[in-house]
Design a protein that fits this description.
alpha/beta, Arc Repressor Mutant, subunit A, 3 domains, two-stranded antiparallel ribbon, 11 strands, globular, binds adenosine-5'-triphosphate, binds magnesium ion
Length: 379
């Protein structure tokens, strides 16, 4: 969160994490949908392209439900986990730390609950808060610790609302039984609801819709969409007003069109505009600020260049040139951007998708990073 030293007004465009409802735009329908699912005992799979707002939406919902004293919120990001042991460490640590104030007494209670491993209490060097460390050396210890954690959840006489973010990660673990183990515990936890979120839609879909997989049809599927334009425009105008800055409907709309209404990029551009303390935000201010952001990132963009083959790079530029493209293997597109053949384009397309430099949405291909896309278009 950025402070303006001159008049102490917070920059109202947050770009990392969740702050509070005051800095959060809309998502009313989505909040209702997630809340309804939880209060009716349904788990949810929440998917979307990167940086659209899945993680902060879940935190927003948890914040609202917690303020009504309805739940114990737990948020677990399993992106850094690579196997059963690392998952178990992160999972157990998050559940214990976020569901209880860590005191010596609660630590002793947690310690006595664990059957195979002995946790240690440490002081986190960045936050200075007590934290639990768990050493798990083999699969048996991991599985029994997962048992213990679910036993602990059942023993707490409150309702848990647990989000496992980047959930598709578990399908990449070398151990093949993790899905089945979790599914059976989750099924029998009547005082816990789960949100499984992630950006790799195809992996999530196959986990939850392949009849042979443990999580088959176990949860509502919810694909997060972009924020409604009108609501985002009103939000932008309102947030700038907090700094006594004005922006017209037309210019707010142009911010959305330059950023494809892609939440992170809208917030980022607005954050940089706000910091300039302009009285009125005009079209040229938006243009200059966008250019400054893009120019500031140039060295990163150049480094992408060196990671790609010529075919991949040319295709990336061509997609950016069109903003989005439905049929990148069509003769017309290939001719226009001089892209050799259909088969090289197909191959390059696959590599760019694997590297997450592009994504597909409603049948069209886009360069993932909106600012990078704008830079490529100007080359
Ligand atoms: N409704 C919103 N109002 C204001 N800002 C938002 C909103 N949703 C998201 N943001 C901003 O956009 C950024 C990206 O959101 P978030 O990290 O939740 O996206 P994500 O979909 O989880 O991305 P990833 O797939 O990369 O994990 C957040 O840090 C936040 O600053
Ligand atoms: Mg996220």
């Amino acid at each position: 969160m950025t402070y303006d030293i001159r008049n102490d007004v917070k920059n109202p465009f947050v770009i990392f994490g969740y702050d509070s409802p005051e800095f959060f735009c809309d998502r009313e329908m989505e909040t209702k949908r997630l809340t309804n699912a939880a209060t009716n005992g349904r788990n949810v799979v929440l998917a979307s392209i990167r940086r659209l707002g899945k993680s902060v939406l879940v935190k927003h919902v948890q914040n609202i439900m917690q303020s009504k004293n309805e739940i114990v919120p737990v948020y677990i990001d399993i992106m850094p986990t690579t196997d059963l042991a690392s998952f178990t460490r992160v999972f157990a640590k998050s559940i214990f730390e976020q569901s209880a104030t860590l005191t010596m007494k609660s630590f002793v209670a947690i310690k006595s609950l664990l059957t195979r491993i002995t946790p240690s209490l440490t002081i986190d060097s960045t936050t200075n808060l007590p934290s639990i460390e768990l050493k798990i050396s083999d699969d048996d210890e991991a599985l029994s610790t997962i048992d213990d954690v679910f036993r602990y959840i059942k023993s707490v006489k409150k309702h848990f609302y647990i989000c496992i973010d980047e959930f598709q990660q578990i399908s990449e673990y070398p151990e093949k039984n993790v899905e089945a183990v979790l599914r059976s515990h989750i099924q029998s936890s009547s005082n816990a609801n789960f949100v499984f979120s992630g950006s790799k839609k195809h992996l999530l879909i196959s986990m939850f819709s392949d009849a042979g997989r443990p999580f088959y049809q176990s949860s509502d599927f919810f694909e997060l969409q972009k924020i409604n334009e009108k609501k985002y425009i009103d939000f932008i105008i309102k947030q700038f007003r907090k700094g006594k800055q004005t922006i017209s409907d037309k210019e707010a709309k142009s911010i959305l069109s330059k950023t494809r209404t892609h939440t992170y990029y809208v917030q980022f551009l607005c954050n940089r505009l706000f910091e300039q303390r302009l009285k009125t935000i005009k079209a040229e201010d938006i243009e200059t600020t966008l250019n400054n952001i893009i120019n500031g990132n140039e060295s990163i963009y150049h480094s992408y260049r060196s990671l790609l083959t010529n075919h991949q790079w040319q295709l990336l530029r061509a997609i950016a040139g069109e903003d989005s493209i439905k049929e990148p293997t069509s003769g017309e597109f290939i001719r226009k951007y001089q892209l050799s053949s259909t088969s090289t384009v197909s191959q390059a397309l696959k590599s760019l998708l694997d590297k997450e430099l592009i994504y597909t949405q409603k049948g069209s291909y886009f360069v993932s990073d909106v600012f990078f896309s704008a830079w490529l278009k100007k080359l």
